[in-house]
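Entry 14. Ran structure prediction on the chain below.
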Amino acid sequence: MGKGGASIPDEEWERFLREAEAGTQGAPEEPSARARMVTRRLQEETGRPEGWRTHQLAPRRRGKGWYAVGLLVTVGLLIVALDPGRMAGWFGGGGGESPPLAAESERPDKPPATQAAIQLPTLEEPFKGSPAVRWDDGTSGISLPAARATGWMSKKQVAHALDRTRDFLAASSLDRGVLRGERPTKAIALINPHQQDVQDYLAAAFSAPSRENDPLLLFSRLATTKVRLVGNVVKTRGRITYREGKRGAVEVTTDVTYVYPVVRAAPGSDEVARTIVRREVVMSWDDPAKVVIEPGTFSLVSYKVDTTNGGCDDFTGYLTPKFIAERAAKDSGHGPEVDPYDRSTSVDTLMQESGDKCRTATRS
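Output, structure tokens:
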């Protein structure tokens, strides 16, 4: 399922299971999700025009000499000569857009800068007017750290766990079938089936969604009777980090923002809205000698979400974005303002500041 990384052989996982059954260091424990967080949602601004902001220039990298710079310029000119349209696309089609951002290696210290002029999204440019126009597509926007031996895992096993972690993010938040409302079977298959509280949550989330048992905590699903995705691209920005956790486990934290452009489901619709979802999922790749777990699966530690224009206090199990007329019909002033593209604040802080209130997004 992953796009890289070596697979852990079945016999190796079986060896760990045999060690667990033999009772090394005591009997394995059944894991539980130690800190499931109930969703807090942001709500798009209503009653007044949305604010739009400019793009920061990508940080300049120090070159190793003029030869390197000259080679880059030469390659660039050659590409322009062979395919000027591609080069124009990289830089916004001549519209003054900045080049793509470098991968996010750590939490930024400030939000993207504001933009003076409003630029509305279109079917041809669904990310126009937002910082996401400079973000990468799909899993390319989720940066992976270098693997090193950690806890019970070797360097090779950690690399495999990181790849599988990104597989889960793709299967839960980028898979086209899941976005159309299908059950996220591939993603669920990566979750430890022996983690009973999580299995109870999953069973309830898809049969009777509620504030506590909301599938949107972990999965992105659109109400396709009302909206449909524009194009084939979901923009992402985020990172994966890891450390040694309890009982020698490799604890992996993911913090990713997803931007979904949509139009109404009715044929001929052309007004583009955007739903922005930021999730922080913490998972534990446990030692099967110490924890009851199936090979190739992880135990959930916590999962949290902040959503803009996905439906506030509307626990249908689907993202339900609104458009200009629907937003204008509501009263403005739904609480403190927030920038959904600001990744300088942790999800925990956002949730503590908002409590159970819907908030007003300054842009989408």
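The beta strands are 40-44, 136-137, 142-143, 227-229, 235-244, 250-264, 273-285, 299-308, 337-338, 359-361. Will compare against last week's run tomorrow.
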